[in-house]
Amino acid sequence: MIMINEYRNALRDLIQRLNNKGQANQVIVWQVLLDESLDATLLSQRAYGSRDFVDVVMVACEVNGIWEQLPLTKILLPQARLVLELRKRYGVTNG
């Protein structure tokens, strides 16, 4: 559990850092749609082509679980390769 929390904190920091630096080439800017706001896995599928990035979606939307509705706003998602690097560093197989 500690590694998961550290990983999610690192993910949050990464998103903030990319936002502050304006590194558009390393992020996906996404407008959360109504159907996606009710299903974080759907947003993950559309943005990344996989439902395995739902943890990234939840952190980017600042929600605590898949039961929470996502805000209908623009979010920044790190590119998949950056997320995979973090997962490897923290020993997380799938967020």
Which strands sit side by side, in order, in the main sheet? 1-2
- Helix vs. strand class: mainly alpha
Q: Mean pLDDT score, rounded?
A: 92
Major sheet details: 2 strands, antiparallel
Residues in helix, %: 40-55%
Q: What low-confidence regions span 5 or more consecutive residues with pLDDT below 50?
A: none
The number of helical runs is 5
Shape: globular
CA radius of gyration is 12 Å
The total beta strand count reads 2
**Intertermini distance:** 11 Å
Report the β-strand fraction as a percent range. Answer: 5-15%
Secondary-structure element order, as H and E?
HEHHHEH
Topology (SSEs and partners):
Elements (H helix, E strand, L loop, with lengths): L1 H20 L5 E5 L2 H4 L2 H9 L5 H8 L12 E5 L1 H11 L5
